[in-house]
Amino acid sequence: MADGYRSRAVASSLAGVAVLALVAALALVGLNAGRVGGGSVGAYVFLAVAVLAYAGTGRLIASRLPGNATRITGRIPAASSPGPVPAPVLIQ
């Protein structure tokens, strides 16, 4: 139960950080709009919406399916025991 709560909290925190970073970036783009140009500002806004959709989807998945969230354990399961490496095959 605590693991599900932790993954929801981490997902919400990361989504919040993404929103704060994008708000700050868009504020700076807005302040610099005279030098950047209208087309570039539109592209930045489009990319910001795409990043928000990505972060929101990740938060939604982690909150609905906590088992699907990335576990923060400090180890990488695949790298801890890679198993045997196959021998090279000589092709003539």
Layout of secondary structure:
Blueprint: H1 2-31, H2 33-36, H3 38-64, H4 77-80
Task: Briefly characterize the structure.
This protein has 92 residues and is mostly helical. 71% of the residues lie in helices and 0% in strands.
Structure description:
- With 92 residues, this protein is an all-alpha fold.
- The chain contains four helices and no strands.
- The protein has helices at residues 2-31, 33-36, 38-64, 77-80.
- α1 (2-31) packs antiparallel against α3.
- The longest helix has 30 residues, at 2-31.
- The chain is flat and about 65 Å long.
Key attributes of the depicted protein:
mainly alpha; flat; 4 helices; 92 residues
Determine Rg (CA atoms, Å): 21 Å
Span of the ends, CA to CA: 58 Å
**Inertia-based shape:** flat
Biggest sheet descriptor: none
Measured by DSSP, the beta-strand proportion falls in under 5%
User: What is the count of β-strands?
Assistant: 0
Tell me the series of helices and strands, N- to C-terminal.
Answer: HHHH
**Total number of domains:** 1
Q: Give the low-confidence spans.
A: none
